[in-house]
Amino acid sequence: MNPKEIIARRVAKEFENGQLINLGIGLPTLTANYIEDGISVTFQSENGMVGMGKVADKDEIDLDTINAGGQYVTINDDGAFFDTAMSFGLIRGGHVDVTVLGALEVDQNGNLANWIVPGKMVPGMGGAMDLVVGAKKVIVAMLHTAKGKSKILKNCTLPLTAKNVVDMIVTELAVMKVTENGLLVTEISEGVTVEELIEMTEADLIISDDLVRREMQTI
Amino acid sequence: MNPKEIIARRVAKEFENGQLINLGIGLPTLTANYIEDGISVTFQSENGMVGMGKVADKDEIDLDTINAGGQYVTINDDGAFFDTAMSFGLIRGGHVDVTVLGALEVDQNGNLANWIVPGKMVPGMGGAMDLVVGAKKVIVAMLHTAKGKSKILKNCTLPLTAKNVVDMIVTELAVMKVTENGLLVTEISEGVTVEELIEMTEADLIISDDLVRREMQTI
Amino acid sequence: MNKVISLEKLKDIFKDDMTIMIGGFLGCGTGEKLIDALIQSDVKNLTIIGNDTSFVDRGIGRLIVNNQVKKVIASHIGTNAQTGQLMNEGKLEVELSPQGTLIERVRAGGFGLGGILTPTGVGTLVEENKEKISINNKEYLLEHPLRADVALVKGSIVDEFGNTMYKGTTKNFNPMIAMASDIVIVEAEEFVNTGEINKEMIMTPGVVVDYIVKEAN
Amino acid sequence: MNKVISLEKLKDIFKDDMTIMIGGFLGCGTGEKLIDALIQSDVKNLTIIGNDTSFVDRGIGRLIVNNQVKKVIASHIGTNAQTGQLMNEGKLEVELSPQGTLIERVRAGGFGLGGILTPTGVGTLVEENKEKISINNKEYLLEHPLRADVALVKGSIVDEFGNTMYKGTTKNFNPMIAMASDIVIVEAEEFVNTGEINKEMIMTPGVVVDYIVKEAN
């Protein structure tokens, strides 16, 4: 199983019946493929839709219906369309239960940086700042390292997207929860030792007494 | 012609093509009956409608369509329904061209009092405070006196609905404009002398050099 | 997820001292079955947030007459003499808020805003105890958000998932209170299968709706 | 009152240095005929307010490529490389605003609010030079309203009076920019007689619309 699939499958386990969920572009979107049987959730696309379906097949394309990544998508029976003000009312107002998004950096205080690399990449924050401030649960889904360097830090070095907002980090190596005491490792992947994880993580880690070993065939 | 009809007919002359107009309950509503030929305006009902039509005949009643006074009304072809937030967005945002409303008191500084008589009558301001602050032109349409006392004062004595908002006062006796210099009488009704008007008005009046004598048959 | 609930079961939700937002304008767009249930529950000391207190025999007005209300936050109480009388007797607290301000406060509560700045009420009794902020040399009142424990919404057409459309002038406060309350109960004038409402008419998404009462009016 | 205007005549409205709000999200819900007219007018030094700068060959993106823009206020510019390049060269000023904040600023401009308080952006670069206000021990940024000289709106169905409905996700910024601009121009994908649009679907009332362009897409 490739690392991204490991991450997407694990994130999907967090979804609960009836939740409204917003998935960021890229890896976070993959989680929709792995929702457990019997779990029914609603996806939001912040450009103006709840009840978003899948990417449209050629014969399903409606030029007026795109997701926040610009792809043509379908809308489910339970869906509805809204303008941007209402869409972000749902977000800022705490009506979105879970937001899953990627990060450039995240730190042990739950700070998140994912919108700008000064002088290099200035795409803008889009809806990300509102999403992480407004959603009830913020899950960062990303590869543990970039170019061999830990993306999980003691303190973010890039300009923040928001302060103290991340609840959970899911990487191919581990699942970590941001707690008042610091970053608590609750699950570690098959074939990874605690020592290796600590080695690959710049942030201080607290290892849970109830650490779960994630076996790849069961996630 | 009765005093209220005199007032309503005169106010209606202020309406211009294409305007969005909000009429208060009572006398202001009568103005809709006297709109001049060739003038096409749109009426708003702040509870959630633009393009309001007339009071519904028995066979036209739709229980879901009322005006701000609680009467069943019709909606015109050019109309639309909105929630209260949008309705007051139109009002506060300056999209309403004219609001016509009654007053308990109005003064020469354009202050208006029409929502409370402490200890006696506390109906609440409803939408009046937003309307007089938001509308581009505020016309007070009322009888000149109440129980023999002038309703047009040097300074309002009742709690205000808003400060410095009234543009024009139309009574059965005169038309007055609130200017930087004070209350300018621009028109006086047939059979009323300037001296009588001054006598019946507590506010200081400036008589326009171009004072128009309103002849009843022509208004 | 079956959101349909009976009026009988609904009574378990209502508690003394709750803050309840109720849709409607002079009773138009108020769920009278929900008011029935609230009256039958006989919970007391309620704080009611709505545009007005309607008439003595309709909507919010009936709760006032039944002495279940400790405080009302509304823009207008003039059509219900009982409200004024209880207020004068010191038995009912009334907070009057301009209509446009009131709906923005509810919206701010539901949309996660910390407050709004409005020119309405500057220089009047409404500004008492409120912060004034000057933006570009114009004064505004800082008005705080409102939220409630329960919203009683009246939907013209409601589907099984809770998606709701409101006909004509029944919209008024309904779409906003559905965003600003912890528990959202919708009374369906017409109840349909999920997906049967034109998606361009849905103002309240089912995701914010907790319970649906489908007894016909 | 005939609001229908030709693309040719439309050019008389556009002036150098104007602030223009443009609807659309990555070009979906942007009136491309209106962009054509703006490009043909060749007015310069525009300030453009919109969600994003789309792609180089679509919507706002085309104005960027045509060097007509002095400043952009948007939430995202990452899909149009030209925006970033001109910014880095100092030829284009970019003000980034979080999407939810940006739309509330436009709404405040159109709805007569002096500002809004949002938790979004607290503790980030976004808070620079902005007032922070604490409400119930939570910090909020005071964000100021936005208005424009002209709004370029794309309507899915527009009637003669200007009443407009927006299909699917083309709504995005369109209903709010139509409230926040002195001159509102709507490009009609479908043009119908007054009264033919279902009144429950109209998001923009004709009273705020000044001009309608009905050339088919």
What do you see in this structure?
The complex is a heterotetramer, with 2 copies of chain A (219 residues) and 2 copies of chain C (217 residues). By secondary structure, chain A is of the alpha/beta class. Helices cover 16% and strands 32% of the residues of chain A. Chain A has 5 helices and 15 strands. Chain A has a 10-stranded mixed beta sheet. The mean pLDDT of chain A is 95. Chain C has helices spanning 7-10, 32-41, 60-65, 81-88, 99-111, 174-177, and strands at 19-22, 46-49, 69-74, 93-96, 115-118, 132-135, 138-143, 148-159, 164-165, 181-192, 211-213. In chain C, strands 1, 2, 3, 4, 8, 9, 10 and 11 form an 8-stranded mixed beta sheet that branches. The two termini of chain C are 24 Å apart. The model of chain C has no long low-confidence stretch (mean pLDDT 97). At the C-D interface, strand 5 and strand 7 of C face strand 5 and strand 7 of D. Strand 5 (115-118) of chain C pairs antiparallel with strand 5 (115-118) of chain D. Chains A, B: Pfam families: CoA_trans (PF01144). Chains A, B: Belongs to the 3-oxoacid CoA-transferase subunit B family. Chains A, B: Keywords: Transferase. Chains A, B: This is 3-oxoacid CoA-transferase subunit B. Chains C, D: InterPro entries: 3-oxoacid_CoA-transf_A (IPR012792), CoA_trans_fam_I (IPR004165), NagB/RpiA_transferase-like (IPR037171).
